[in-house]
Protein 1
Amino acid sequence: MTTKTTDQLRNFGCIPIGLPALGELLEDYHSPRDKVSAMVTEGALIRLKRGLYCVSPQITGQRLSNELIANHLYGPSYVSLETALAFYNLIPERVVTTQSVMTRRAKIFETPLGRFIYKTVPEDYYPLGVRQETSNPRAAFLIATPEKALCDLILLRANLRITSEKAMVTFLEDYMRVDLQEIKNPDLSILDGCIATNHKATELRWLRKVLEHECL
């Protein structure tokens, strides 16, 4: 690989890139696709799925962001559930799998960077409580707010039935190991919006009471 090609790859940083962009970069090669395959074998590129790659940190000098990759791998989607809670330091465990939420069909991707899981939520519920975070000035990704990540956790937990505020605290602190004291001034309007969609509204009302009484 030439120095020019290496420098051009470095410019992509940690942002995932598709075959069209790589094809433009490698247009001087007789077979750009073969060159891409060779670059994967050499370790210059990491193949995320068919047609989507990221440049090796050894070339860019930038840490890869699984949250950013998750947005590009299958979307539109946002990072949520335990991945988001770990991002905000609300749970003590290191999360290996990157979990996201979307309105399309649920899916799992196995990549060299780990497993990426996508779960489905209703369309009217999906856009509430989502914000943009950055892993570096060039890498912005969509992620649930802490409040929405908790709502997603409850919405997507099969057979979860909670009928009191105490039971919700037990579920969050004892079962999910959520540190409620780390949730500062929660935005209860996000809870109100999620409750209004009428998806697991009873459980989400108990969650709202917990956040109101424990975190304000």
Note: The first strand starts at residue 17 and ends at 18.
Protein 2
Amino acid sequence: MVNGRAKGASFEREVASMLLDELGIKFVREIEQYRQKELGDLRPVECDNWPFVIECKRYAAGKQAKDEWWEQACTAACNFNLLPCLIYKFDRAPVRCVIPIAAFEKMCEGTGGYDWKWKVELDFATFCMVTRELLCDPDMNDHATL
């Protein structure tokens, strides 16, 4: 029998390693998530303008992210005034990332005020490209604008 908590922790470490490789930003697991609800799974070390709260999910089978996973990411993001990010993987499938359309609006200096229910799903490499763009935005230092 597979230990779900161990599988989730292993995936969180895998995602942290992938983010370090792609973005050069070190992440640590948010250990307090087991004691306090509504926290993300990973947090950056020494990156003051990181735009997302990351929620990681690793499951054996499925076709797409579950709505409750996205809701969990959104709830945690609200607590920190950041954008939600869901990173998930099913067995024998690539890592997928879900972020709100508002992240693209921020990149394009739009003013549409999209609700987080409007989201996009990306492969990991594209998510990292979007994140690089957001990190280069001088306004990202002011999270209140998210």
Note: The CA atoms of residues 10 and 58 lie 9 Å apart.
Protein 3
Amino acid sequence: MTRPFTGRHMTAILIGFFAIVLAVNITMARFAIGTFSGTVVDNSYVASQKFNGWLAAARKQKTFGWTAQVSHDPSRHALVSVDAPGAVARAIARHPLGRAADIPMRFVPVDAWHLRSVQALPPGRWTLQITVGRGGREMRLMEIVR
């Protein structure tokens, strides 16, 4: 014998459905707030005004006649390979979500073409903003280390 479908059944189904939707929304909102600081740039209008200058600087870097590449070793030291002997580098390691303080990094030469950071990066994801200089010219690079 089957029981008839009543208004109480429909009410229970609707309440259950919306309770699940509400629970999922609250959970996702808590994850979103807990993992992202909400600031990509402090002022998007000012950043948009500087964009053309950033593009011009990138084009200028290509005229230097030398290149640099960034990587990291298993011990999480940053490595810079430059096809210009005698180059120097400095960097700032930034946590992409701002949860940890910025880390200034120094580099020492391994040989004429390679530089290695003095300190290793802590665990986690970091954005390295590196400046490589030689002969009064500076090249800016960015690398994400996971």
Note: The CA atoms of residues 4 and 69 lie 72 Å apart.
Protein 4
Amino acid sequence: MRRAIFLALLLMNLGLFAWYRWYVLPGRVEPAPSAAPGGKPLQLMSELSAGDRKALASAPVESAPAAATSPAIVTPMPAASTSGTAVAALACASYGPFPSSDDAAQGLARLKAAGLTANQHVIPGKTKRGYWVYLPPFGTRREADAAADLLRTKGVKDIYVVADEANRNAVSLGVFNQREGAVQREKDIRKLGLKPQMAERFRDEPRYWLDARGAEGALPQADVFKDLGEESTPVGRATSVCAG
């Protein structure tokens, strides 16, 4: 009986050994050998023949392929900032009025000699000729002549009857450069019982101006043209806007 049990256990152990030896448990798959880079399956050195091992030992060693180099990225350097002298701000000014073209030409030469850009322009103007004392126009020429004769008999000189259209039949009593002389003449005629009037006299005359342009602070004051202006109307300076 014991012998039968022993034999049964022995057969069972042999069966289990054979099952583990030649069968694979479900769910377990042995990984396949990786393929060599050349496409051949990997082999152990012990699996190679003597000739294969000798050929493998004498084969040149292949260097690993060089890694592809990516093109270098060139970062542009920032432009160097030039610290040059700052450009001076421009300024413009006008000078005038000059009484004549000759005076303006002299002023223009002075501005250009100072390194400034300058030009000349002309505008209409009037020049004071003095003060006129007169008797207002009479209704007729006969009345004007009678008034003039009366004044002559009283010692008044330099009188005449005006014939131009604007002041026809007026009696001129004199033109004076200074206001004081005109005022005195007016008083003298009033003492004779007449009513004279006084008015400023002007004549049309162009006025000359100079326009200058240059660095701020380089434009001169009007004093440099003091000798070129009239006493009654000196040359002045006016700040202007630079065109363009």
Note: Residues 2-22 form the longest helix (21 residues).
